[in-house]
Design brief:
One of its GO terms (biological process) is RNA methylation. GO terms for molecular function: RNA binding; RNA methyltransferase activity. With about 450 residues, the chain is an alpha+beta fold. About 30% of the residues lie in helices and about 25% in strands. The chain has helices at about 5-15, 15-25, 45-50, 75-80, 95-100, 115-125, 135-150, 160-170, 190-195, 200-220, 240-250, 320-330, 380-385, 405-415; strands spanning about 35, 55, 65, 85, 105-110, 130-135, 155-160, 175-180, 220-230, 255, 265, 280-285, 295-300, 340-345, 345-350, 360-365, 365-375, 375-380, 395, 420, 425-430, 435-440, 445-450. The strands form four sheets. Strands 5, 6, 7, 8, 9, 10, 11, 12, 13 and 16 form a ten-stranded mixed β-sheet that branches. Helix 8 (about 160-170) runs parallel beside helix 10 and helix 10 (about 200-220) packs across helix 11 (about 240-250). The longest helix is centred in the middle third of the chain and has 21 residues, at about 200-220. The structure holds S-adenosylmethionine (SAM). S-adenosylmethionine (SAM) binds next to helix 6 and helix 10.
Length: about 450
């Protein structure tokens, strides 16, 4: 791989000579593949007991595992069932450092395609609130699909600028992740675009954009809250540099000392004329650990976390719709998910927390439970994806014998209907016990309602 000369010169100045050679060599090796088990759907232990792939733990992420280069987890039906998320291993560091607890209010400000958001959602375990925001509309759609596939019930997916989000959510969140757009020097390996667009001017542009994003994040963090900043670049201006500019402008913030995971190296204040406390930020180097490289910092805002702020009431879906939802749940579910029913056009959602949505660009205001059409409620795919098999009144196993082929599941994922002799009505289709969508039994068939856009 041919690296930009100015990049090489800068890296040579940054690293001691033997380390610089090792750093260069890291570009020649095979890239690492990893997945993260989605604990909203399956426990780590159960996933390992299934022995699906040849796995090795990622040291800094409890549910992260490297898999062999010949494995194809993206093709397995369990990927569609949302049992795991394929993610670059060093990218698992920021959300792990955020140490999110169930019930907190969390913002992922630069969230698409959703690696960190889905990791934060697992940590929340369906309690509290996740706002997953992405500025680019097309990327926000992909984020929203991943939130759905992973069975996240308490997320609001927005497509806003950090500035307008900050107007709606002043001092609102317990934790914020800023996984900033950056010059992507850690991505040279896999994305030619990062290599083509690299220039010292672009590094400067990214650094100023990071300052702007962090400024808005600061406004949205509650006193006593935690801000995690990360990039996938090695440029000091965008890493320790962004932190020093931010800390100078915000004396209410300091670097939080958190235990250093295996393989992480300290940040370098001397590269940016910054304070010693930057040594408690983290450098993930591709020649030191098994990953493409990252920078991460955990910052703390002074003060005590207050009670969660309330916006008061939000307008609920009208009575007929709420009643239809209750009736649907009574007939088809054994447990009814919680949330405030809100109608967006024909789409019914359960909003996890009373947040006024007017004026915000929202793609997914909570859990999508159904479509209200012709005075009937048809269940949404997202609802199937948050349920456990036992939470539906009826389910049908499409892969009853683990030793047999996955033909019936594959047919289902292509949109085909399958034979079924159960009771008529909405039925959860299962792949070895894990929901993959809704079907409707009638006339000895499970009619396929797998969304057209997802069919293989
Ligand atoms: C490093 S990526 C995020 C990756 C994501 N956190 C994940 O783990 O899957 C940075 C994101 O920031 C978005 N972005 C670009 N410009 C932005 C801006 N001015 N404000 C906020 N986000 C921006 C990009 O579209 C991109 O999706």
């Amino acid at each position: 791989m041919e690296l930009p000369v100015l990049f090489e010169e800068r890296m040579r100045r940054m690293l001691p000579p033997e380390e610089y050679e090792q750093f260069l060599k890291s570009y020649e090796r095979e890239k690492y593949h990893a997945l993260r088990v989605n604990t909203l759907k399956i426990r780590r232990k159960e996933f390992l007991e299934r022995g699906l792939f040849d796995l090795e733990p990622v040291p800094w992420c409890e549910n992260g595992f490297y898999y062999g280069e010949n494995e194809r987890p993206g093709k397995h039906p369990f990927h569609e069932a949302g049992l795991y998320y394929i993610q670059e291993p060093s990218a698992m560091s920021a959300a792990a450092l955020a140490d999110v607890q169930p019930g907190e209010y969390v913002l992922d400000l630069c969230a698409a395609p959703g690696g960190k958001s889905t990791q934060l959602a697992s940590a929340l375990q369906g309690q509290g609130l996740l706002v997953a925001n992405e500025i680019h509309p097309a990327r926000a759609k992909i984020l929203s699909q991943n939130i759905e596939r992973m069975g996240v019930r308490n997320a609001l997916v927005t497509n806003e600028t950090p500035q307008s989000l900050a107007l709606r959510f002043p001092a609102f969140f317990d934790r914020i992740i800023v996984d900033a757009p950056c010059s992507g020097e850690g991505m040279f390996f896999k994305e030619e675009q990062a290599l083509i667009h690299w220039s010292p001017e672009n590094v400067q542009m990214c650094a100023s954009r990071q300052d702007e994003i962090l400024e808005e994040a600061a406004k949205m963090l509650a006193p006593g809250g935690t801000l995690v900043y990360s990039t996938c670049t090695f440029a000091p201006e965008e890493d320790e540099g962004s932190m020093v500019r931010f800390l100078n402008a915000h004396p209410e913030f300091s670097v939080k000392k958190v235990p250093s995971p295996e393989g992480f190296r300290p940040g370098h204040p001397e590269w940016v004329d910054g304070p010693e406390e930057l040594k408690a930020t983290f450098r993930l180097w591709p020649h030191v650990l098994k990953g493409e490289g990252h920078y991460a910092a955990v910052l703390q805002k002074a003060g005590e976390l207050p009670e969660h702020a309330s916006f008061g009431k939000v307008p609920k879906a009208d009575r007929a719709v709420c009643r239809a939802w209750e009736e649907f749940a009574a007939v088809n579910l054994r447990e009814t998910p919680e949330g405030i029913p809100v109608l967006f056009g024909e789409q019914l959602y359960l909003l996890p927390v009373a947040i006024p949505l007017k004026g915000l660009k929202v793609l997914r205001p909570g859990l999508h439970v159904g479509t209200w059409k012709k005075n009937r409620l048809e269940p949404a795919h997202a609802l199937a994806m948050v349920l456990r098999a036992q939470e539906a009144a009826r389910s049908l196993e499409l892969h009853p014998n683990p030793d047999e082929s996955w033909d019936m599941v594959s047919a289902w994922l292509r949109g085909e209907s399958v034979p079924a002799d159960g009771e008529n009505g909405w039925t959860l289709a299962l792949a070895e016990g894990y929901p993959i969508g809704w079907g409707k039994v009638s006339g000895g068939q499970l009619k396929n309602h797998y969304p057209k856009g997802l069919r293989r």
